[in-house]
Amino acid sequence: MLPRSLALVALWTCGCAPALSTFQPAHVAKKGHVQAELGLDVSIPTGTLASMVDAGVVLADAAESRELSEAERQALFEAGGALALNPPSVTPHIGVGYTALDRWELNLRTTGSAFRLGTRYQLLKSDEHGVDLTAGAGVGRYVMEFPVGSILGIVELEDFTRWQIDLPIQIGKAGTWYRVWGGPRLMFTTFDTSLVLDLPAFTGYAGERELASFSGTGFYLGGQAGVALGYQHVFFGFELTMAEIFSSGELTVLGQRAVALDLDSFIVYPSVGLMAEF
């Protein structure tokens, strides 16, 4: 139980899940000024993704004492794919945005396992229109792999790649002591990975090694809202994102069996941290 508990902690703290938070107010800084943020996100998948992972943990334990059926082996691969798509995770994030032109911001963000380059344009200003409104776009790329094997034990993830495109749209207001913002959360992702199943050897059963590939797309559709309190330049904030992921993938084992997977699930995604503007 202790190794399994440590594996869960390792997965939760690896920063593996897609970053659904924005942690930005609904306005950009004045021309020549900077906005920055630093904090932690928590990704909590529910539904299909959570059920697949739970089933995979049970089967990984069972493989230590008996031979797995073909259906059980496939279920283990599916659990690995679910973890690759959106595992439970605590994700650190740090970002900075620079307003190069009036109303137009360039921003860069890292979440431990990924980098994102984005831009925002402020369409409405509160002093002119009563509210702030920004819209933008960003592209993210994963640059690190994460320990699926630490939780499923006999399943390893190799050659993992993921690209993400998101469209942040936020409306809100800001004052000397507060920031409030909210809006829809839209993100599209593509992913591809190899999965390796190392089945253990024991009496009457020789160890085996099976290979599979898993690839697909996902679309996150939801909303988020945030509030931050502070004074002038530094604020402490909380943001909550809730989104449905509509995802489909194809699992191919040994280049022969192709199985279509429906991984639609609901994601709860709170975030806390510091925001600064100077």
Question: In a few lines, what is going on in this structure?
Answer:
The protein is an alpha+beta fold.
Explain how this protein is built.
With 278 residues, the chain is α+β, with helices and mostly antiparallel strands. It has one domain (2-16, 26-277). It is built from 5 helices and 12 strands. The protein has helices spanning 2-12, 48-62, 70-85, 126-129, 148-152, and strands at 34-45, 89-101, 104-110, 114-124, 132-142, 155-166, 169-174, 178-199, 208-231, 234-253, 257-262, 265-277. Strands 1, 2, 3, 4, 5, 6, 7, 8, 9, 10, 11 and 12 form a 12-stranded antiparallel β-sheet that branches. The longest helix has 16 residues, at 70-85.
What is the topology?
Layout: H1 2-12, E1 34-45, H2 48-62, H3 70-85, E2 89-101, E3 104-110, E4 114-124, H4 126-129, E5 132-142, H5 148-152, E6 155-166, E7 169-174, E8 178-199, E9 208-231, E10 234-253, E11 257-262, E12 265-277
Antiparallel strand pairs: 1-2, 1-12, 2-3, 3-4, 4-5, 5-6, 5-7, 6-8, 7-8, 8-9, 9-10, 10-11, 10-12
Organism: Sorangium cellulosum (strain So ce56) (Polyangium cellulosum (strain So ce56))
Protein name: Secreted protein
Signal peptide: 1-19
